[in-house]
Amino acid sequence: MRIRRHGLAGLTIAALALASTALPQAAAAQSPIDALSDRYITLLLRTYPELVPLSGIEGARQSALPPIDAESLKTVAAEEDRLWQDLNGVDEAKLDDAGRASYALMADGLEAARAQRVCKQPLWSISHMTGWQVNFSRLAQAQATGTPDAREDAIRRWESLPAYVDRDIANLREGLKQGYAVPRSVVTRVIGQLDRLLALPAEQSPFYAPARADSDAAFKARFKTIVAEGVHGAVKRYRDFLAGEYLPKAREGIALSALPNGAACYQALLRASTTLDRTPAEVMAVGEAAVAQNVKDIIAIGGKRFGTSDLASTLAAVKDAPDNHFTTADELVDFSKRGLARTTKLSAAAFQQLPKQPAAIEVLPATEAGSGVPAHYIPEPDPSKPGRYMLPLDHWKTETKGGAEITVVHETIPGHHLQIAMTQELAAKVPLLRIPLVGAYIEGWARYSERLAEELGVYETPYAGITRRAWMARGMVVDPGIHAFGWSREKAMAYLVESGRFDEAAAADMLDRIAVIPGQLTSYDSGGLEIAALRAESEAALGKCFNLPAFHQQVLSGGALPLKALRSRVEAWQIATRKACAK
Fold it and tell me: How many CB atoms lie within 10 A of CB 322?
């Protein structure tokens, strides 16, 4: 799942305006922390419209696109500063459990947003991962329809796309003047995405989704014109700008250090991604230690299974195993769907409950295929509909069965789907939990789940145990290696390929992902290692009183919290459990 910090610089999706409030009117007796939470949610929904359908929060209009002009961004920053000041006036010690969760989420989110302003990301917004051409395609597919007001909102929003694109182009031109340029490899990927969009007739475009979902003939006709003329015209204009004007000025390297204030920006993005106060060197050191242990374990496993004695020969044996590969793309899809059924059944033993909401697997749409977009999970706020694991087929010929079943676990159960669905069930008490704010927890839980699935016997192949260790924690090394310590693309490529998880094409995809979402790759194992450490500490502290489903319930029942808040929660549970067990 791709999680970006919801500070203004952390996303390329934002909203120009919503209704005066995105939440029901606050009651007179509302607590100060609840009032601040409502203000913060309103700001987030004004700033990031994709959060409206994603979160399921009602009351917000869906009629606008992001504020990427300087004055609007100043307005958002000013409200963040006011919220930060007001939050600092709250006595956290006097809050109940739900209030402490809201406080922790706001404190972490506002700190991240304010720190990331140094990055000036609107000036280098081109991205094949989070660019408007990707996010707006999905936003169109989530657009509410079916009523006169909803149709009017859809018309207003998508008629404004050409103006948005013109503003984005102006920002990018200003960025080039100030020394901000996106890597050439990323620009090339985005041009490919735009070409695929332009090749589609209006009625097949993802931007036509609101009309496909509505039965009104007049609305369909008007919306077809909006897409065929306005949207496709804007896409063409953006594509020609990138190919003719921007690409010749794009940079060859991928390191954030090449941009103005790159070091300060990377520190801010790293803090936002991990929710921990670690320097790039500290993150890298933790990652290197974990990688060293994983290599030691892989060599031990390889010696028993293959008679090998080093990392390279063990990974080569895994890669070359005929029964570790697929013969068709459809076989990969079928294998993944069977894996979902298997992990759902076997994971039940480790939890007090599984979510009621189902999970489903869908193939990545054609407009995103071939551009390096990886597997990811899309939450569904309506519990009667499934959360979706989006499966790319770009590299099915080199994908392994061991790798594929790890990804199923990561994206569905006991990974993202389980955690996010359970968090949504808690949102009545903590509305902020409806919004996926903390990547370190969300990705960390999914990484921890990969290990848990091995314990539970979920993996069918004998290769998954090696494959998951080969890649684990390497993101904590390669990401700061590139952005803070001068690693060349060639060195980073070799490090990725060494893991056995990537061939050169897949490694190139990962490098361009690291380039456009600096720091995000460190969130997985920063969180995963922290959750694993909390479990080990709980087992040691509680001894015979330790219960795995109870531990998981404690980690999950607070929702997606910053890692420091999660630690405080688990440590309090340890104390309470020890006292209860002693009686």
Answer: 5
d(CA 42, CA 33): 14
Residue 409, token pair as written in the block: 């676990």
Blockwise average pLDDT, block size 10, the chain, 583 residues: 37 25 44 94 88 71 89 96 97 92 96 97 96 94 92 96 98 98 97 96 96 96 97 98 98 96 98 97 98 96 92 93 95 97 96 93 83 81 90 90 96 95 85 89 96 97 94 96 96 92 90 96 96 97 96 94 96 93 81
57 vs 24, 39, 152, 265, 433, CA distance in Å? 10, 14, 20, 31, 11
Whether the bond into 49 is cis, omega within 30 of 0: no
User: Where on the phi/psi map is residue 370: left (φ > 0), alpha (ψ -120 to 50), or beta?
Assistant: left
Is residue 519 helix, strand or coil? coil
Judge whether 114 and 80 are in contact, CB under 8 Å: yes
**Cross-sheet strand order for the sheet of 376-378:** 359-363, 387-391, 376-378
Q: Could you give the 3-state DSSP secondary structure of residue 247?
A: helix
Q: H or E stretch including 363?
A: strand 359-363
